[in-house]
Amino acid sequence: MKRALISVSNKEGIIEFARGLEQLGYEIISTGGTYKTLADAGVKVMKVADITGFPEILDGRVKTLHPKIHGGILARRIPDHLQQLEANQIDTIDIVAVNLYPFRETVSKPGVTVEEAIENIDIGGPSMVRSAAKNHEDVIIVVKPEFYGPVLEQLQQSGNVSREMRLKLALEAFSHTAAYDAMISAYLAKLTGDTFLDNMTVAGEKVYELRYGENPHQKACFYRTMTPGASLADAKVLNGKELSYNNIIDVQAAWALVKEFEQNACVIIKHTNPCGTAIADSLEEAYDKAFGADPVSAFGGIIAFNRKVDAATARKAAEPFMECIIAPGYDDDALAIFQAKKNLRVLEMKISSAPQLQIKSVEGGFVVQESDQGTVTAADLQVVTKTAPTAEEITDLLFAWKIVKHVKSNAIVTAKNGVSIGVGAGQMNRVGSAGIALTDAEKNNGAVMASDAFFPFSDTVELAAARGIKAIIQPGGSIRDQESIDACNRYGIAMVFTGMRHFKH
Prior knowledge:
The protein is an alpha/beta fold and 505 residues long. It folds into three domains: 3-192, Methylglyoxal synthase-like domain (Rossmann fold, 3-Layer(aba) Sandwich); 232-348, AICAR transformylase, duplication domain (Cytidine Deaminase, domain 2, 3-Layer(aba) Sandwich); 378-497, 3-Layer(aba) Sandwich (Cytidine Deaminase, domain 2). Helices cover 38% and strands 20% of the residues. Strand 1, helix 1 and strand 2 form a beta-alpha-beta unit. The protein is elongated, with a radius of gyration of 30 Å.
């Protein structure tokens, strides 16, 4: 008689799967909670302890770690192995259906203790999964409910499972255990503070396949990281189609920036750069100002709010063509307004802290860094010019500084009265970005300027002075800082250093 060992934390579909195997003549063996679930459903099932002749011990830590289990799983169906099994009174196990303790769910709970987390590190489960996956030519390994149906179908049709299916199931099994170990490693690294390990594994769970990547000829997929914490993958899609690759990247950029502000804020993003950012006494006013900052570039963009959206704001935000809107919430009337536009993607996500690590792939590897969570306050600013900024200018300088942090380098941002005016992004020289940001001379008159890195020459200050800029914020640190300071003093411009750079590539 053929045997199937079933031990799952995720009970979805397991009763139907076990019944199907039972009808095909399989003897079912199981452990703990899975045994009870199957027995209560009327499935004829044996306990693992009845097979091993050894009880579960150590509060269930040792159940299946026994030669009569692993011998039955690992044995090839060749004479030598079968003779050894017979000599040791071990029966073969032909199907292993196992998924693991819910470690991620456990460590995601508020207030979880280290002891609770450790108890949810599965040992027997991964051992059985790996054993069965290694011996996949002779053993069918199933780690996900979505494969129960296809496996049963092939067994019903031919009494066996194709080699192609066995290989796919083995791949899923090793991916399952690798991701599980990666989650545990990430949790322990968080406890110890060891961010950059000698061996780093990044675990991801597929959310859905994307139509394509940045361009139609590129395949793409959206994954959720399997470590605890907020994820864009968990944002509620309240309206519209699934996000595209470019939508996801742009939504992340908009969300990261809008979270910087404590006041009512609106950010409009195009190709990851902010074309309009504003803070105001009301969300409606913040939207009006952000959209008004650059209505041409805003077309087809991403709007992010850091407050629950009301109907008045929604009516205005729904007028132009936009790809996506993301906010912490929506009034019923606001949501109804957005839902009238069937192609507008509307997302809801709670405000949370930024991810701790950023990962970028390079040829044959990847680089990892802490996310840029650096901030400055008025107390951190070093006034380096004869003219000091006014209180109003300091407010605008700090506002512009938050924005420039999220603009592709070389980055220059001008702002006035809590509204971005000009954004110069991604130019190969700083004065080139300044020229773009300062295009509208009339609007920039009396504004402030932020630069993500120091001025290598005084040419940017000269250009700023010609456009009426009154105050500048930049990191400082150039060997020619004094030239820029002298230029500011000539034109009566206030300049402050932050001592912090915000390159963004």
